[in-house]
Design a protein that fits this description.
One of its GO terms (cellular component) is cytoplasm. Belongs to the UPF0235 family. InterPro entries: DUF167, YggU-like_sf. The protein is of the alpha+beta class and 73 residues long. It has one helix spanning 36-49; strands at residues 2-8, 16-20, 23-27, 56-60, 66-71. The protein has a five-stranded mixed β-sheet, covered by helices on one side. The longest helix has 14 residues, at 36-49.
Length: 73
Amino acid sequence: MRVVVRVKPGSSKGPLVESDDEGIVVFVREKAIDGAANEGVIKLMADHFDVPKSRVRVVRGHTARIKQVEIDD
């Protein structure tokens, strides 16, 4: 399954996954430096969907705040 997420890196509110009118919003504490925020998104989405981290990957938007994440179930 593919989901579009809006990422809020460096958030003191995170780690948190919320849904709003536009989709899923992911708040991660990691800053967007050297892929740290992407790793935080992968870990958080794996926990949220109760799958191993190896089954979650960012397929689009590696350097953007809006990402397409693929989750293999």
